[in-house]
């Protein structure tokens, strides 16, 4: 099991509520997003030999670190 350190948000277990939150925060273009639960992210991380905090690169425009965990979160949401 990975030691997940990404910020977590507590949201009602309601698909539409999650979609609305993501839209309000600008995290989606309006297309449906799969909520990245800890279980889903851990399942994604289980498919790689890399550590969850390994840095793969930097992401513009703020050049934040792209860790394996953050990439897994985004892969789940896609």
- What can be said about the biggest beta sheet? 2 strands, antiparallel
| SSE run | HHEEH
Radius of gyration: 13 Å
Q: How helix-rich are the residues, as a percent range?
A: 25-40%
Structural class: alpha+beta
**Average of per-residue pLDDT values:** 90
User: Tell me, what's the shape?
Assistant: globular
Return residue spans where pLDDT drops below 50 for at least 5 consecutive residues: none
User: Order of strands across the biggest sheet?
Assistant: 1-2
- Assembly state (oligomeric): single chain
Folded structure, characterized:
- The chain has a two-stranded antiparallel sheet with strand order 1-2.
- The radius of gyration is 13 Å and the shape is globular.
- The protein has helices at 15-24, 38-45, 68-77; strands spanning 55-59, 64-67.
- Helices cover 36% and strands 12% of the residues.
- It starts with 14 loop residues before the first helix and ends with a helix.
- It contains 3 helices and 2 strands.
- It is an alpha+beta fold and 78 residues long.
Keywords:
78 residues, 12% strand, 3 helices, alpha+beta, two-stranded antiparallel sheet, 2 strands
Helix and strand topology:
Elements: H1 15-24, H2 38-45, E1 55-59, E2 64-67, H3 68-77
Antiparallel strand pairs: 1-2
Helix pairs in contact: 2-3
Task: Summarize it.
This protein is of the alpha+beta class and 78 residues long.
């Amino acid at each position: 099991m990975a030691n997940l350190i990404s910020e977590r948000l507590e949201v009602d277990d309601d698909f539409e509520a999650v979609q609305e939150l993501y839209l309000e925060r600008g995290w989606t273009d309006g297309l449906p997003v799969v909520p990245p639960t800890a279980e889903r992210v851990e399942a994604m991380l289980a498919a790689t030999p890399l550590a969850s905090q390994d840095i793969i690169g930097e992401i513009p425009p703020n050049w934040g670190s792209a860790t394996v965990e953050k990439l897994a979160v985004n892969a789940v949401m896609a």
